[in-house]
Amino acid sequence: MSMSVVAFMPMRHSSERVPGKNYRDFNGSPLFHHAVRTMLAVPQISTIVIDTDSPTITEQCAEFFPEVRCIDRPEHLLGGETPMTDVLQHDASLFPSEWYLQTHSTNPLLRSDTITAAIEALESSLDRHDSLFSVTRLQTRLYDAAGNAVNHDPAVLLRTQDLPPIYEENSNLYLFTADQIAAGRRMGTTPLMFEIDPLEAVDIDEEHDFVIAELLQQRIGAE
């Protein structure tokens, strides 16, 4: 039987770096609408939960996505300094499930087929992995803050495509169990790193990210 998951999409009303980004117009629709439509197209997702303090998001959910469960974030969990694990623990207490998925409205190019493939990849490897997080592969010359080479020998100028890859956690997708989030963890001890194409994995943190993501969606097409 296919894995069934409850999907969490936490969203705040205010955003410091990109004001109002969650409900700002993105190629004709509020940004979070794109992510919700993507989640609705994933067959393994049984319930979509938006945890928010935004009346704008709550009102739009009621109007456009009545099948989505929109819940008010408790006052003690408001604020940008609140750990995301605390928010997810609260949400999991309201929606019991063996498996949970978390994504963000700020990943508007993430495709439903990719999410489906990630769930299937974890389900088929549960003998080796107990959770999943998405990554972007980097094959470029990297240095630490002290100027030390991380993934290459500066004296041997290999082609960048021949360098050993390093993987960046891209915040697009997490899959974890009820026990893991109850313990305050969004990953288990043997997580599966699920690679996503860099164009699809764009995450909106800054104003320039918003512009880039809009242009990419216009060019490559995405929900």
Characterize the structure shown.
The chain is of the alpha/beta class. Helix content is 28%, strand content 22%. It is built from 6 helices and 9 strands; from the N terminus they run βββαβαβαβαββαβα. A 7-stranded mixed β-sheet has the order 5-4-1-6-8-7-9, sandwiched between helices. Strand 4, helix 2 and strand 5 form a beta-alpha-beta unit. The longest helix is centred in the last third of the chain and has 14 residues. The two termini are 28 Å apart.
- Category from helices, strands and their pairing: alpha/beta
* DSSP strand count: 9
Quote the beta fraction. Answer: 15-25%
Low-confidence stretches: none
Distance between the termini: 28 Å
Record the strand order, biggest sheet: 5-4-1-6-8-7-9
Report Rg. 18 Å
Tally of contiguous helical segments: 6
Helix content: 25-40%
What's the mean pLDDT score? 92
- What is the 3D form? globular
Short description:
This protein has 223 residues and is α/β, with parallel strands linked by helices. The chain is 28% helix and 22% strand.
Search tags:
alpha/beta; single chain; 6 helices; 7-stranded mixed sheet; globular; two-stranded antiparallel sheet; 223 residues
Write the layout of secondary structure elements.
Elements lengths: L4 E4 L16 E2 L2 E2 H10 L4 E8 L2 H10 L4 E4 L11 H11 L4 E4 L9 H12 L7 E8 L27 E12 H5 L8 E5 L11 H14 L3
Parallel strand pairs: 1-4, 1-6, 4-5, 7-9
Antiparallel strand pairs: 2-3, 6-8, 7-8
